[in-house]
Design brief:
It is a single chain. Helices cover 54% and strands 15% of the residues. By secondary structure, the protein is an alpha+beta fold. It has a three-stranded antiparallel beta sheet with strand order 4-5-6. A two-stranded antiparallel sheet has the order 1-2. Strands 3-7 form a two-stranded antiparallel sheet. Strand 4 (144-147) and strand 5 (154-163) form a beta hairpin. Helix 5 packs antiparallel against helix 6 (119-141) and helix 6 (119-141) runs antiparallel to helix 7 (177-197). The radius of gyration is 24 Å and the shape is extended.
């Protein structure tokens, strides 16, 4: 029988795991749900800026995606349940494509809260901003960040990709906490603009 040695013990206190009970307890301890009740500060101390701002980016993008989904549902004139059935499994990029196509289809009949006399140009800029939000979010969420604790505010972003067009590509660049906050604020600003776009949406032009 093969013996498994468990890390976390001194060389003089190695535990040999050979029984079903040992295995079940190990699986539960490693892969089971974490049920710790200690608060954030009790576990790791006061929150730090880097993980806090990355979390803020994630939350703001999730809110933006929800706003985009709700806008599509209104444009399709569906109730919430059927609307969420249509949108819940769509990628963000697909949602932007649907949003763009619906606007092109409906703009002649319905009112949208766009920039007067520059409606189409404004809408193109809005869609470009939505795509930019996803690009920025992906840059952050799919990267590794290493903070320079000597300078506090400087951060190294690292990412490795291997794509058909570019092959293996390694990115290592310096950024700052301020730049990451700017990403969070940019996404939040686009979300606010989407909410403004939906004001009085789907009112027929000849009804005013």
């Amino acid at each position: 029988m093969t013996e498994r040695r468990v890390s976390g013990y001194s060389l003089n206190d190695i535990v040999l795991m050979n029984t079903r009970k040992d295995f079940d307890e190990y699986v539960k301890s490693v892969f089971g749900a974490v049920t710790e009740t200690a608060t954030y500060e009790e576990r790791v101390g006061p929150p730090e800026e880097l993980p806090a701002v990355i979390g803020l980016i994630a939350m703001k993008f999730s809110q933006l995606e929800d706003t985009l989904s709700e806008t599509i549902i209104k444009m399709l004139q569906l109730d919430d349940d059927r609307g969420h059935i249509m949108t819940s499994e769509l990628s963000f990029k697909v949602k932007v494509n649907i949003f763009f196509s619906l606007y092109q289809n409906l703009k002649g009949t319905y009112l949208f809260n766009t920039f007067p006399d520059f409606e189409d140009e404004y809408f193109r800029e809005l869609c470009k901003a939505l795509n930019r939000c996803e690009e920025l979010r992906n840059q952050v969420m799919h990267s590794t960040f290493v903070q320079n604790y000597l300078t506090k505010t400087k951060v190294i972003r690292q990412k490795i990709t291997a794509k058909q067009i570019t092959g293996l590509k390694k990115v290592s660049e310096e950024t700052t906490i301020v730049n990451l906050f700017n990403i969070a604020d940019y996404i939040g600003g686009v979300d606010f603009e989407m909410e403004q776009f939906g004001i009085d949406m789907m009112t027929k032009k000849d009804s005013r």
